[in-house]
Amino acid sequence: GAGVSQSPSNKVTEKGKDVELRCDPISGHTALYWYRQRLGQGLEFLIYFQGNSAPDKSGLPSDRFSAERTGGSVSTLTIQRTQQEDSAVYLCASSRSSGAKAGYTFGSGTRLTVV
Amino acid sequence: AQSVAQPEDQVNVAEGNPLTVKCTYSVSGNPYLFWYVQYPNRGLQFLLKYITGDNLVKGSYGFEAEFNKSQTSFHLKKPSALVSDSALYFCAEAGGTSYGKLTFGQGTILTVHP
Lengths: 115, 114
Description:
The structure holds two protein chains of two kinds. Chain A is mostly beta strands. Chain A has no helices and eleven strands. Chain A has strands at 5-7, 10-13, 19-24, 31-37, 43-50, 53-56, 65-69, 75-79, 88-95, 105-106, 110-114. The termini of chain A are far apart. Chain B is an all-beta fold. In chain B, a hairpin with a 4-residue loop joins strand 8 and strand 9 (73-78). Chains A and B meet through strand 4, strand 5, strand 9 and strand 10 of A and strand 6 and strand 11 of B.
């Protein structure tokens, strides 16, 4: 596609429910990154994919968070047993190759609200 | 470890005046520095980056930034601010890993008054 697509754009869920956030990167972009932006804060790195593998998942805040990528394309971030502190905007970015020189394209994010 | 600091939570300027949004960084090795802008309910939009070469980098919408190695800074500047420049600005660094993990500053809210 022309850009990075994220869905849903907004998600309101009850505490304790599981949610899935989707990222559809630009076609041909092998690198994919997830970030979390809490209200009034900067962006925190969550996980990095190169193809379907995740060499760096060090930013996932707890074992309730997991992510996968299939076919070297679409990625899904899953949060189990959501808590109120999970409320944030989740941003996805893709890049033609790993590393800064290729540049990044960000999606518009999924705003998650846990009530 | 990488770190990026934006010392000002907010910057206020009058339309037509020059603006500066500050950023300092800490990274072992060569820094790869970025500026992004975020408008309400929108994703991040790329403004400019420094990878190598000239220390003065020109980017989108008339913005520029100067890489200063001795001061470990990468301040964002614009000669004449517009009301439409009002937004949240993030500085980021990606030189700490081989795969380009971005480390972001906390962000600076820029408000340009008419």
